[in-house]
Amino acid sequence: MFRFLHSSDLHLGKRFGNLAEDLRGRLREARHGSIERLAARARENGADVVLLAGDTFDTETPTPDIRRQAIAEMSRHAPLRWVILPGNHDSLQAAPLWAALRAGLPENVILATEAQPLTLAPGVALLPAPCTTRRPGRDLSEWMDTAATPDDTIRIGLAHGPVQSFSEETLASDILAPDRARRAGLDYLALGDWHGAVAIDARTRYSGTPEPDRFKHDEPGRALVVSIESPRAEPVVTAVETGLFAWKTTTLDLLPTDDCEAALAAILPPAHLRRHALLRIAASGRAGIAGRTALVAAIADAAPDYALLELDETGLSTECDATDLDRIDRSGALRDAAETLLAQAGDESRAEVDREVARGALVRLFSYCATASS
Amino acid sequence: MKITALRLFNVKRFAGRGVAIEDIGDGVNVLCAANEFGKSTSFEALHALFFQAHTGQPKDVKRLQPYSGGNPVVEADIQTEKGRYRLAKQFIGGRRATVTDLGSGRLVAQADEAENFIAGLTRGGTAGPSGLLWVRQGITGIEDRDKREEEDERRVRASLLESVQGEVEAVTGGRRMAEVSARCAEELGRLVTATGRPKVGGPYDTALAEQRRLAAEDARLTADVAALRKDLDDRAGAARHLKDLDDPAERDARRAALEKAQAALDAAKVHGEALRSAQAELAHARGRRDATRRELDTFRGALAKASLLAVQVATAEQARDAALVRHRAAMDEIARADAETQIAETEEKQARDLLARLDAALKAKDHAERLAALATKLETVEALRMELEGAEAALASLAVPAKTVDRLQDLEIEIAGLAALETARQPKLGIVYEPGAIARVTLDGQVLDDGEERGFADSARLDIPGIGMMTLRTSRPAGDNDALRKAKAERDGLLAGLGAENLPEVRRREADAQRATVEIERLRAGIKALAPQGLPALREEMARLAAAGPLPLEVKGDPDSARQGVEQAAERVAAARLALREAQPTRGVAENALRGAETSLASLQGERAQVEASLGPLNERAGREQALADEARLADEHAAEAEVRTARLRDAAPDLASAEAAVRRLRSAEESAARQIADLRERIAGLDGTIRARADEAVEEQLQETREALDAANRRVAAFAAEVALLDRLQSTLHAARSAARDLYLKPVMQELRPLLALLFDDLSITFDEKTLLPHRITRGGAEEDVERLSGGTREQLSILTRLAFARLLARDGRPAPVILDDALVYSDDDRIEKMFDALHRQSADQQIIVFSCRQRAFARLGGRALSMIDWKPED
C-alpha cells in the first residue's frame, strides 16, 4: 500500500499584474502558502511523499527569493518528501534554475529531472517525464512504455502537458498519449498542466493547481490523495482542499421586473468568506435602467468586502420603458434627448458599438436626472 | 391696448404747469420736437405712470418732481378691448392712483387696485400678458437697464411666448436640463478637452499614459525575456554541444583516429624513405652501367686506334727518312759554298791589310810634316804676340778717353767766356795823365797807362806815386764768379786725372795713341792670319798632333797594286757569297720538309704511345677486354634489377600528402574540440551570469505582470474611451434637444422677425438668448457674432425690430400693445432710418407706435400722425 499526494502547477512567483497592488501580494503569498497546505494535507492523510507534476515555478528564471523560500518551506516539512518535475513553465531548458535547485538541495526534496525510474519506496518506482524545453514537440512520456522495473513494482508515472488540445498552452505535437497508463503499465499517471482537476481515466488524472489563479476553472484549489494498494490495483483517489483564495464566477440572470439589489444579495457569499473571495458577477438577461443603475451601485457598495468583486455586464441588456423615461422628464428637451438616445439604442441599422454608446448615454442621463436637485 | 392721450402736470420742467398730447391714434404717431421741448419728460411721465407705484418714492419718481417742488400728476387715456379708461397718478404729495372708465365716467379702481389694473395692462396680470414695449433713447435693449423694468419687459416677452408656445421650462428642460448638461459637461471635461483630446493630467490621459508606459515596459521586458530565453536556449545548446565534445568515448575516438592517422603517416614516411633509397640505388646502378659500357667502348676504340696508328707511324717514318736524305744533300751544298766564300774572304782580307798598312805609313809621314809646319807657325805667332802686348801697353799709357778730351775742350771755351764776362763786369779804372806827368799810377802794382782802362775785382790798390796808395773796394757780393771757378776746377781736375799739363798736351797724347792703335791692329791682323782660332787653339792642335802622331812605318809595296789586289779579292768574295746564297733556299725547303715529317711522326708516335699505354701490355689486352665486357653485362643486370625494385616501391607508395592531411585534419579537429570546449565553458559561464542577472531582476515575472497590467490598462483606456463616447453622445444629444426646443419656443417670434430683418439686412439670422428672450447672437454671411459686438446702429435696429416682432405677436394674439420709441434711432444713418420707417409702417397697420424724436428733419419723412403738445391743467 503506497499513498502520496498528487499536485501540480503551483506557479510560485506568479505576479497578477492586472489586479490591485495589495491583492497581488496576497495572491502571491497564497501561492507560497500552498506548500504548507499541501504538507498539512499529506500529513493528515498519511502520505509521505508529494508529487509535483510540473510548473512548480511560474518562470524558468524565478528570483532567488522565490526559489529558496520554496525549497526552505519544503525542507521544513521533512521527512515528508517532495518530488519536483520540470513543467513547461520551468523546463529543463532553464538549466541554471535546476542547477541552482540542485545546489544545496535538502534531502527530502527530489528533482525528477531525468527520464529514468526513481525508487520512491521499496517496490514503488516513479517514472518521470520532465519537460526538456518549453515546447518539447513530442510525447515525453513515451519512454515509460519500455522502462523496465522489477516485477511486483508499483509504477507511477509523472508528467506534465496536455493529453488533448484543451491544454493551457496547446501544441498538437506535445500531446501526451491519454492511454499512456495502460500502454506503459502504470498504476497511476500523475499529470500536471491543467489547472482544474480532471480524471482522464481511473489511473490518469490531472490534480489541478492547489491555489487557483484565474476565474477559468471556477473550482477551489485541490490536491489528490492517491492510495495504491498493490501493483495493478486500481488507485483510490480523494480530492482534498488546499486553496486559500476562491476564484468564482457567479451568474446573475435578471428580468426587467427583478429587484436587482435583492437578486445580487441572494447570490453573495456569507460575509466571513468574502475576504478570500475573488468574485465575478456575470450579469445576464435584461434589466431596466433603474434596476441596472441600482445593480452597479450595489456592486460598488459590496466590493470592499471582497478580495475582488467585479461585475461583468456583457451579458446584460438594458430595457427601457415609459416609466424610466418619465423619470427623466415627462416632456421637453430632456425627454426629447432621452427618446433620441432610446431610438438610437434600438436602431437596428446602427452599429452595435454605436447603439451601446447610445444605451450607455441613456443610462447615464437617467442617473443624472435621478440625482438632479431640481 | 392703445394709448389715446397723455397728460402731465408739474412734472420736471413743467413746474406748475402741464401739457397734454391728445388724439394719439392707431399706426405711427410721431411727436417730433426740439430738445428741451418736453418730449422726454412726456416719455418719462408716461413710463412712470405705467411702471412706478404711486406710493413709492424711488429715485425715478423723485426725478419727476420739478426743482420747485410740487406733486407730479400724470394721466393717460387708453383703449382696450374692454373699453376706454383714463389712468391717473399723482406722486409724492397727495399720492393717488385712479382708473376711470371713460365710457361711463365711473371710477373703476383707485390706489392699489388701480396699480393692479395698470400692472395687469403691462405685465400680463390676470388679463394675460399685455402691456407696452419700450425702446428708449440710446437703449438698445441689451445694456443694463432698470432691473425691474427689464424684468417686466422680459416677462412680457416670456409670457407672450409661453402663451403661444407653452411653459419655457417645460420646453427647454429648464434648470434640470442645465444641471444635467453641466454635469455631463463636467464629467466629460474631466476626461477630455473641448476639442475631444484627452485632458492633460485627467484620468483618461493618465490611463493613456499608463498604457503607453506599460506598452513600452512590455516591449522592453519582452525583449529582455526574449533575450533571456535565447540565453537559456543558447546555454542548453552550448551545454549539449559541450557534453558531446567532452564525452570520453568521443574523446577516445578522436584520439584513436588521430593515432591511426599518425601511424599511417609514419608508415608512409618509412615507405617514402625506402623508395628514395631505391631510387638512389637505381641511379647508382644506372651510372655504373653507363660507366662500364663507356669503358668497354673506350677500350675497344683504343684497340682499333692502335692498329690504325701503327700503320700511320710506319708511313711517317718513311717520309721522315726521305726528308733527311734531301736535307743532308742541301747541307753539303751549302757547306761547299761556304768554304769557297771563306777562302775568298781570307784573300780579300790579306789584300786589304796590305793596303791598310801602306796607307798608314803614308799618313805617318804626312803627320810629321804637319807637326813641323805648325811649330814654325807657332813661333811666328808668339813673336807677333810679344810685339802686340808691348804696343798695347804703350797705348794704355797714352790713351785719353775721347769724352774727356771733348769736355776739356768745352771747359776751355766756357772758361774763356766766363773770364771775359768777369772782366767786363769789373769796375774799370782809367787814367789820363797830364801831359807831361811822368809818374805813373799803378793798379795793384801794374802801371796804368794813359787812357788805359782797367778793371779790378773786389778791391784794388792804387799806388799813386807821390800821393799815396788808394784802396778801392767794391761792394759786389762775394762768389759772384763761382761758375768760372767751378769750370776751372773741373778743368784742372780733368787735367790732373790725365796727368797732363794742359789741353795741347792732351791733344798730343791723343795723336800718339792713335798711332799706337794702328800698330796694334796691324799686329793683330798678323796673328789672326796665322792662327785664326787663336793662339790657344794652335797650341792645342800642336799638342794633339804631337800626342796622336802614329809611329812611322816602313812598308814595302805599291799601294796601287795593293788596291787592285783588294778589288779582285772583293769580286771573288761576292761571287762566292752569291753561290752560297743560291744554295741557302734549298736548305730551307729541306729543313721544313724534314721538320714536318718529324712533327707528324712525333705526333703519331705520341698518340700511339698514349693508346698503347691505355691498352696496357699487349698480352693482357684480350683478357682486359673480356673482363670489361663481363663487368658491363653485370652492371646492366644490376640496373635492371634496381629499376624493377624502384618501380615496385613507387607503385606501392601510400599517398603521403593525404596521410599528412588526415593527421592535420584530425589534429586540428582535436584542437578545435579543445578550443570549443574552452569556448563553450566560457560561454556557458557568461550566459549563466546574464541569466542569473535577469533572473534576479525577475524579468519573466515582470513581463507577465506588465502584460497583465497592460491588459488592465488597455481595458481601462477602452472604458475611458467608451465613457468619453457615451458622455459625448449624451452631451450632443442634450445640446441638440435643447436647441431644437429653443428653436421651437422662439419660432413664433422668429417668424414675425424674419420679414422685418429682411427689410434691413440681407442674409442675417438671429439666435435668441433663452433668459432675456432677446437676440444675443447673429449669423451673418455664415459667421456668428455676439450682438454685443455689433455696432450701436445695428444693435438699436435689432432692438426695435425685435420689439416690433413681439408687438406683432401680441397683436396676433389679440392683445395689441403700443410700441413706444424714445429717440430710439440715434445711431442709425438716414438710409437705415428710412428702412426702419418702412418697417414701422409695415407694422403700423394693426399696431400703435408712438415715436418721440428730436430729429425733426429725419423724422419728417416718417409720415404718420404728427402729435403736438398743448397746455393742460388738471381739472381739479
Automatic annotation (TrEMBL), chain A:
The keyword Nuclease applies. Keywords: Exonuclease, Hydrolase, Nuclease. It comes from the Bacteria. The keyword Nuclease applies. Residues 2-195 form the Calcineurin-like phosphoesterase domain. One of its GO terms (molecular function) is exonuclease activity. Coiled coil: none annotated. PANTHER family: COMPONENT OF ATP-DEPENDENT DSDNA EXONUCLEASE, NUCLEASE SBCCD SUBUNIT D. This is DNA repair exonuclease. The lineage of its organism: Bacteria, Pseudomonadati, Pseudomonadota, Alphaproteobacteria, Hyphomicrobiales.
UniProtKB/TrEMBL annotation, chain B:
It comes from the Bacteria. Residues 1-60 form the YhaN AAA domain. This is DNA-binding protein. One of its GO terms (molecular function) is DNA binding. Residues 344-394, 656-723 form a coiled coil. Keywords: Coiled coil, DNA-binding. The keyword Metal-binding does not apply. Pfam families: AAA_27. InterPro entries: P-loop_NTPase (IPR027417), YhaN_AAA (IPR038734).
